[in-house]
Amino acid sequence: MMLSLSCKAAIKAVIFLGSRFESGEKYSVIEIANHINENEHTIGKILQKLVKHSIILSSKGPLGGFYISEKQINQPIIKVVEAIDGKTIFQQCGLGLEKCSEKHPCPFHDDFKPIRDEFKKMCEEKRIKDLYKNVKEGLSFLKN
Question: How close are the terminal C-alpha atoms of the chain, in Å?
Answer without folding.
Answer: 23
